[in-house]
C-alpha cells in the first residue's frame, strides 16, 4: 500500500476482527493493578502514579475507555452487517480485561485461523504502534501452537473519514465557543523525545509520531477552514530531567493568553475517544487553567463511535478482503500493517523500546 513498508501484508482470508486497545479500570479495585500493568518495566515516578490513580478515583475508578470501545465495536458490527461482511468482532486490551491474550484464546477456540487486528491508535511510534505489535506477538505466544495468524490493519492518521470526523467536531465546537478571537490548539499524548526521534523505520529519519500528529492537525484544520493552529502535547509522565515532547498544553495556554487571544479551542487529535486523558487532563486541568487566564475554553469531541470511524475500520478491512485501494489524504509515511506482531521494518521504533515486559 502507499508509503507503507515492504513488510506490509494482505490477508484476504481473514475470518474475524480483533479490536485491540489500551484498556482501563472499571472500578476502584482495578485502579492499582491496572496502573501496575501499564507501568511495568517503565521509568514512571511513584508520585506520578499516585496522581494518576487519583484522577481515575475521581471518576469512581472507572475509565470511560472500555465502554467507548464497546460502543465502537457495536458500530463496527452494524457496519459490517450493512455491507454483508460476515466476520465476528472480538475485543482485547493491553492493560486490562478483557485482555488480548484471552481474546486470542477465544479466536482459537472458535477455530479461527486468521484474523485482522484493529488497534485504536492512529499513530506510528513505540506507544502507538510497536507496542501493539508486541501485544499481538505476546498474545499469540500465550496461546501457543493453535494461535491464529494475526494481521494488523495499518495506521490511519490521514484517513479521510478520521479527518472528516474531527473536522466536523472542530466546526461544531467553534460554533459553541463564546470568543471573538479564539486560538485553535491540537493536542496529542506526549512521549519521550528519544522515543519520537526513534519513531518509524530509521530510513525515514525518525519522528514519525510527531510528524503524523502534525499532519493530522494540518488536515483537520484545513478541512474545518481554520487558518492558523498550534500543535502541543499533554499527559507527560516521565521524570522531569528526561525531555518529552512539548510544549505542554497548560504552558501553551499561558502563551495563548499573553498573545491576546480571548479563547481556546482544544482538539485532542491524538486520541480516538474521550477517555481519561481527555476528560481529566483537558476537561478538568486545562479547562481550569484557561479559566484562571480568562480564556474561553472549548474542547472538540473525539470521534468515539461516530459512524465514520466504523466505516473507516470496515474500509481498512476491505483493503485486505477485497484488495480495496487505501484512501489517504496526506503525505507523511504510514506503516503498522504486519503479520503476527512483526515490526513494521528492521529496527522500527527500536531505540525507544524500554526493557521487555516480563508479565501479562
Ligand atoms: C502515544 C500514547 C497514546 C496514544 C496512542 C494510543 O491510544 O495508544 C497513549 C494513550 C493512552 N494512554 C492511556 C493511559 C496511560 N498512559 C500512561 C503512560 C504513557 N502513555 C504514553 C504514550 C501514549 N499513551 C507514554 C509514553 C507513557 C509513559 C509510560 C510508557 O512508556 O508506557 C499511563 C501511566 C500513568 C501516566 O504516567 O499517565 C496511563 C494510565 C490511555 C487510557 C486512558 C484511560 O484509561 O481512559 C490511553 C488511550
Ligand atoms: Fe498513555
TrEMBL record:
Protein EC: 4.99.1.9
Residues the record lists as binding Fe-coproporphyrin III: 63, 132
CDD domains: Ferrochelatase_C (cd00419), Ferrochelatase_N (cd03411)
Keywords on record: Cytoplasm, Heme biosynthesis, Iron, Lyase, Metal-binding, Porphyrin biosynthesis
Cell compartments where the protein resides: Cytoplasm
PROSITE patterns documented for this protein: FERROCHELATASE (PS00534)
InterPro entries according to UniProt: Ferrochelatase, Ferrochelatase_AS, Ferrochelatase_C, Ferrochelatase_N
Keyword match Nucleotidyltransferase: no
Domain of life: Bacteria
Pathway as given in its UniProt record: Porphyrin-containing compound metabolism; protoheme biosynthesis
Catalyses which reaction(s): Fe-coproporphyrin III + 2 H(+) = coproporphyrin III + Fe(2+)
Major subcellular site: cytoplasm
Positions annotated to bind Fe(2+): 189, 277
Record-linked SUPFAM superfamilies: Chelatase (SSF53800)
Similarity comment: Belongs to the ferrochelatase family.
Purpose of the protein: Involved in coproporphyrin-dependent heme b biosynthesis. Catalyzes the insertion of ferrous iron into coproporphyrin III to form Fe-coproporphyrin III.
Protein name: Coproporphyrin III ferrochelatase
Source lineage: Bacteria, Bacillati, Actinomycetota, Actinomycetes, Mycobacteriales
Gene name linked to the record: cpfC
